[in-house]
Amino acid sequence: MPVAPSLYSAAVKRPWLMSLFKPLAGWYSNAAGYRQMGLKADDLILEENETVLQALSRLPPKENYDRIYRIRRATQLSLQHKILPKHEWTKPEEDVPYLTPILEQLQAELKEKDALDTLTVLKNH
Amino acid sequence: MICRPALSRGSQLALRRQGAAKLAQRGFAAAASPKPSYEPTTIAGVKVASRDDNGPTTRLAVVAKAGTRYEPLPGLTVGLEEFAFKNTQKRTALRITREVELLGGQLNAFHTREALVLQANFLRDDLPYFAELLAEVLSQTRYTTHEYHEEVLNVIHQKQAKLDAAAIALDAAHSVAFHTGLGAPLYPTPSTPIASYLNENSVAAFAEAAFTKGNIAVVADGASDAGLFKWIEPFFKSVAAQSSSSLSNAASKYYGGEQRIAKPGRNSIVLAFPGAALGSNQPETAVLVGLLGGESAIKWSPGFSLLSNAAAAAPGATAKATNFAYSDAGLLTIQINGSAAAVRKAAEESVKALKSVVEGGVSQENLVKAIAKAKFNLLSGSEVTGTGLVHAGTNLIHGGKPLQVAETIKALEGVNADKLKAAAKTLLEGNASVAAVGDLHVLPFAEELGLKKRIPTQQYSATSHLVKLAKMTFAWKAAGITYNRYLAVAARAVRRSLKEDKRLAAERRGQQELRFAKWSNGKQGEMRNLADANAQAAVESAATGGVA
Q1: 0.80 exceeded by the pTM?
Q2: Which UniProt keywords apply (chain B) (predicted)?
Q3: Average pLDDT rounded to a whole number, residues B84-111
Q4: How many folded domains does chain A comprise?
Q5: CA-CA distance, B473 to B314, in Å (whole number)?
Q6: Residues A41 and A86 in one domain
Q7: Does A112 sit within 8 Å of B95, measured CB to CB?
Q8: Which end of chain B has fewer CB atoms surrounding its CB within 10 Å, N or C?
């Protein structure tokens, strides 16, 4: 399961829950530390997976290049035991899911394929 | 007592025999009391041709004006064809495939030079499903980027790899015959640079322009009229009535010429001549195609047709005559395929056969056979089944009338040997289009075959002048003098050939007081007049045989 199970859709429907969780989620994302290394949340998705590889191949070339740049920069920072200067941190509004929509689309395809592979034909006569 | 089954069986047989007798009687009479093979109607703005013989299966096709002739950029028709039955707004390509499999249907997309055809073959009861599917493919395909890269491109590359010499030669013949429009290749070869034109966005834009109600026709074979009326109206509502961008619609013009393409493997020659367009009144062309023929209808014998006899003289080659009829032009082709030497021989024999028609005419027997063959070709082509489906659709989208059987048959029967002779003569004396693909060391040139390349008269003088200029341009190189010397000689010659008064004026213009000196070892040499030095050098170069 490359995309983690999420309560996001449930929270969106309830404004009070949203108002409760949003600051918490923001704090968590900042505390997780990937933003300080210039990464986006979707850069952390495990790559060693057929679906994710397929999704990566569907990324636009520019998006793919930027992703590899971020990961290499983060690797370098990790080796040096450093974090980026503050103005280069990923800003919360930049931290958008760019891979998750493609992954969800791929999973829907797989699910549909699975459903069609195992369907039972009911004859109406 | 006679048992009931026997009685009913007998009566059935009798009935059948009666029917058979009636059929036998009708045989040729079908031509006497003919009706067009389909009745064109319009349902909710969509042109529809249908024929129903109450069979258990149906063929439903959408014929769109999106053939290679109308593509604004190379490769778009091919892209549109491969994008057929891919993801739509409503369902995925996988679901479409699986559902069609469950219904026992077949989907097919292909294109001709003028039309793109999306066809579905299915059981008669499933008409609503497939009517909806075809309309959905036309109006709601998503043309996604990942499908283009993951599927469409792969299929195009595979089909490109399968292109053989015959297909390339036919494309090349069309290209020299019509240049643009009909001259666009039916399938771009691997060496055609389409990558910069073909992508999902350009295909989507082309689809938007091509898939409008005015540009499509629905052709049905085996669907009830009631069913068509009921289902086309709601489903084809989503197809746009008009598009903001229109298709290029330049009239075709015949040019002619020759093209030779080196290619390993099989060999092919196409000899093409101006032919008969769709619906044009040229019965002699149809009969000439019947006479040239090529594919024998009888086993173990080349048959009567001229081309099959020509091919029989060159074992290993096949020759076939076809008239490719398009909406506003036609191309009569002789396609010869096989090993290089055999193709060469068969091509020579084919032209000889054509010449024999011009010189010796045709025997009465062959004429009768050719007319019969032409009738069969015409009638089988106009039926709304198989290839006729595309025919009917193409006719509809170009606003043509369905074939008037009685008149056409009468015209075919009216062809006599003299008319045929005249038609063959026009072909041989006209401007041929010749394409040779394969081993060019062996394959003949058009001129060797005895086909003329007539240069249009109004261009003749200009062209010949250009040819001379082209030679003159490099004469100085051949003479071995420098370009400056060449200019000086040419200018002098021009000046000397002027009339006395003009010459004096011109020579005065040529007088110059430029002087030059050669410096050697830091010392200035003798100051000399440039004009005198030039003249001296010219004399020297003339003395040494032009090497200066």
Answers
A1: no
A2: Electron transport, Membrane, Mitochondrion, Mitochondrion inner membrane, Respiratory chain, Transit peptide, Transport
A3: 95
A4: 2
A5: 45
A6: yes
A7: yes
A8: N
pLDDT tops 50 at residue B505:
yes
Run of H or E residues at B60 = strand B57-64
User: Contacts of residue B150 in chain A, CB cutoff 8 Å?
Assistant: 57
> Residue B98: what pLDDT?
94
Going by C-alpha positions, the residue among B106, B95, B424 that lies closest to residue B273 is B424
Q: In the prediction, which pLDDT does B79 show?
A: 96
Question: What count of Cα atoms within 13 Å lies in the side-chain half-sphere of residue B2?
Answer: 8
B146 touches chain A (CB under 8 A): yes
Q: Do A116 and B95 touch (CB under 8 A)?
A: yes
State whether A7 and A43 are in the same domain.
Answer: no
For residue A105, being part of any structural domain is answered with no
Q: Please report, for residues A27, A118, B63, the alpha-carbon distance to residue A17 in angstroms, rounded to integers and kept in the order given.
A: 16, 38, 55
Q: Is the pLDDT of residue A122 over 90?
A: no
Buried b (16+ CB within 10 A) or exposed e, B250-282: eebebebbbbbbebeebbbbbbbbbbbbbbeeb
**Cα-to-chain-centroid distance, residue A93:** 14
Mean pLDDT check: name the lowest of A8-17, A106-115, B517-526, B535-544.
Answer: B535-544
Residue with tokens 């052709």: B219
Read off the tokens for A36. Answer: 């300080």
Alpha-carbon gap, residue B25 to B434, rounded angstroms? 46
pLDDT at B303: 86
More confident residue, B66 or B294: B66
The CATH number assigned to the domain holding A80 equals: 1.10.1090.10
Q: CA A81 to CA A33: how far, in whole Å?
A: 13
Tell me whether B95 touches chain A (CB under 8 Å): yes
Q: Which domain holds residue A8?
A: 1-32
Q: Which DSSP category does B314 fall into? A: S
Residue B363 CB neighbour total at 10 angstroms: 11
Q: Chain A residues with CB inside 8 Å of B98's CB? A: 116
**Pairing of β B106-111 and β B116-123:** antiparallel
Looking at the structure, tell me whether residues A22 and A39 fall in a common domain: no
Does the structure show a pLDDT above 90 at B440? yes
Chain A residues lying within 8 Å of B95, measured CB to CB: 112, 116
CB of B98 within 8 Å of any CB in chain A?
A: yes
Find the closest chain A residue to B101 by CA distance. A116
Give residue-wise pLDDT tens across range B181-224.
Answer: 999 999 999 988 999 999 999 999 999 999 999 999 999 988 99
Task: Read off the pLDDT of each residue in B410-419 and give the average, rounded to a whole number.
Answer: 89
* Residue from the list A58, A60, A109 with its beta carbon closest to the beta carbon of B92: A109
Cβ pair B71, B250 in contact under 8 A:
no
On whether both A26 and A43 belong to a single domain, the answer is no
Of B122, B116, B130, nearest to B216 by C-alpha is B116
Q: Are A44 and A2 in contact (CB under 8 A)?
A: no
pLDDT in tens, B5-62: 445 555 455 445 444 444 444 444 444 444 566 778 898 889 999 888 888 999 999 9
Does A58 sit within 8 Å of B94, measured CB to CB?
A: no
Q: Pick the residue from chain A with its C-alpha nearest to B93.
A: A109
CA dist B190 and B188 (Å) reads 7
Provide the ipTM: 0.82
Q: Which of B94, B102, B150 lies closest to A121 in CB terms?
A: B102
